[in-house]
């Protein structure tokens, strides 16, 4: 009998946007751990302004771990439970700035603040006041100096070149590490010099995972490559390239040898179909697109480039609307148990639960077996397209409204395989697999799920 093909837990993350800590802990135990997700990216864990919009999370008031998403104890409990389930926690670190509210106020946990005055933490001299634009806001993304020392939408811009500011940020991140987090998304990294970010993260233990958010902008002087020197970076080009063929049905292979143009080298890239910002902005394919969104995620998870992060948020019609809360303003818990795919109509506030969808879970299984096998040249037939991960698996999609067939040459052993998306049986014979695909359908087989030899 042939030996069982090797598989390895894939490095796949999930962003659980604005989900309370107690619910993330549950998801780790019931869904993420069992299905092989390696890490979860949380929303920011520190005290923010007391407002209802989701983006209150991006307006820090203090580094107390008290938020609408839960308490310090709940955060610590989540990290421990996720860890026990084999899931690392990556916290969203908002360290470029403090709140942008002009009026004095009190944060979610009651901490008083004024714009540029955060008692016990920062005082006016700890902030850049760039003096380069009329209101100190960033106006010109072609100016490195403006982007890094002026204010992003009025958010008080920390002088991250200052040793005391760096020390305060490092102490905050060390506090989170003491609770067991594995690393950080560095929010708005582009708005800090790579030198400043490197100095801050360089003070943390070597094995801290760092993912810098540096939105690649055409022609802009600040590029993600600068931040790839000391950690991973989100590669925004990836999602931008993924979407157009889904609408047009015209697919072409990416660069298969060597680096992809306008992409950081694969080893340092975090890729995504969308995130909380792009689903409210530039993303062409989001949860609203149902099956097309499944296809986008499947293609990403089948690819050999970068580390994918699946995005799982909530439905909304108002881009500012926060997740549903109780009468005290705490975000309501939610469970994704039993959710198997996208639905046609969401009510505002419904969790999309993308990480629980059958197709996503199937593609994690595919990825576990695909390992680092190279992606081979694909086949584009009408609205269908597919490709092999050499000797390990084959994926195919149909973005058309009619059923479609695509034939992919493959070196997988002849035999029958369980399709990890549909559960159907797919046959490899004569060095090829013929996929009959439903409208807006996906199929994927891998070496680890043969049902019979021929
Ligand atoms: C990010 N990455 O670099 C986050 O991913 C993104 O979600 C954040 O914007 C941004 N950078 C700052 O951390 C969000 C949201 C903005 C919101 C800010 C601050 O997209 O709309 O700005 O958070 O909460 C809001 C208002 C804006 C106002 C600002 C300051 O929309 O009009 O500016 O607050 O009060 C006057
Ligand atoms: Ca800055």
Write the layout of secondary structure elements.
Layout: E1 13-16, H1 21-35, E2 39-41, H2 72-84, E3 88-93, E4 105-106, E5 112-113, H3 144-149, H4 163-178, E6 183-186, H5 194-202, E7 209-212, E8 232-234, H6 236-248, E9 269-271, H7 291-302, E10 307-312, H8 358-370, E11 379-381, E12 384-389, E13 393-398, E14 404-409, E15 415-418, E16 425-429, E17 432-437, E18 442-446, E19 450-453
Parallel strand pairs: 1-2, 1-10, 2-3, 3-6, 6-7, 7-8, 8-9, 9-10
Antiparallel strand pairs: 4-5, 11-12, 12-13, 13-18, 14-17, 15-16, 15-19, 16-17
Helix pairs in contact: 1-2, 4-5, 7-8
Bound molecules: ligand LM2 and calcium ion.
GO biological process, one term: carbohydrate metabolic process
Catalytic activity: Endohydrolysis of (1->4)-alpha-D-glucosidic linkages in polysaccharides containing three or more (1->4)-alpha-linked D-glucose units
Domain Glycosyl hydrolase family 13 catalytic: 11-367
């Amino acid at each position: 009998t042939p030996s069982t093909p090797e598989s390895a837990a894939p490095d796949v993350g999930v962003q659980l946007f604005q989900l309370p800590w107690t619910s993330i802990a549950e998801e780790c135990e019931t869904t993420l751990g069992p299905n092989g997700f390696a890490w979860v990216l949380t929303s920011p864990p520190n005290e923010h302004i007391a407002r209802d919009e989701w983006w209150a999370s991006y307006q820090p008031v203090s580094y107390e771990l008290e938020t609408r998403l839960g308490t310090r104890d709940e955060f610590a409990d989540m990290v421990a439970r996720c860890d026990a389930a084999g899931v690392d926690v990556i916290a969203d670190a908002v360290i470029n700035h403090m709140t942008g509210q002009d009026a004095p106020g009190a944060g979610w946990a009651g901490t008083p603040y004024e714009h540029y005055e955060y008692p016990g933490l920062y005082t006016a001299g700890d902030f850049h006041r760039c003096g380069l634009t009329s209101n100190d806001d960033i106006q010109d993304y072609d100016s490195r100096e403006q982007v890094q020392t002026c204010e992003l939408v009025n958010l008080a811009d920390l002088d991250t070149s200052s040793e005391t500011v760096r020390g305060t940020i490092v102490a905050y991140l060390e506090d989170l590490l003491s609770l067991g987090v594995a690393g950080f998304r560095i929010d708005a990294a582009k708005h800090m010099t790579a030198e400043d970010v490197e100095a801050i993260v360089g003070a943390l233990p070597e094995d801290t995972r760092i993912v810098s958010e540096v939105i690649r902008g055409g022609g802009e002087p600040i590029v993600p490559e600068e931040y790839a020197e000391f950690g991973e970076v989100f590669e925004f080009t990836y999602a931008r390239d993924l979407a157009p063929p889904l609408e047009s049905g015209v697919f072409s292979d990416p660069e298969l040898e060597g680096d992809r143009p306008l992409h950081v080298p694969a080893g340092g890239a975090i890729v995504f179909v969308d995130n909380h910002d792009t689903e409210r902005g530039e993303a062409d394919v989001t949860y609203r697109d149902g099956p097309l969104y499944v296809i986008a995620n499947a293609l990403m998870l089948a690819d050999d480039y970068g580390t994918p992060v699946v995005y799982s948020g909530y439905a909304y019609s108002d881009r500012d609307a926060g997740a549903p809360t109780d009468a005290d303003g705490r975000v309501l818990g939610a469970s994704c148990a039993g959710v198997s795919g996208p639905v046609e109509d969401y009510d505002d506030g419904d969790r999309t639960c993308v990480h629980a969808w059958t197709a996503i879970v199937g593609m994690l299984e595919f990825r576990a077996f695909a390992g680092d096998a190279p992606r081979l040249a694909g086949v584009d037939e009408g609205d269908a397209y597919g490709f092999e991960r050499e000797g390990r698996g084959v994926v195919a999609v149909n973005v058309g409204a009619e059923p479609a067939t695509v034939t992919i040459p493959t070196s997988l052993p002849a035999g029958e395989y369980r399709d990890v998306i549909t559960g159907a049986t797919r046959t490899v014979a004569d060095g090829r697999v013929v996929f009959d695909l439903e409208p807006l359908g996906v199929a994927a087989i891998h070496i680890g799920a043969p049902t019979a030899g021929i």
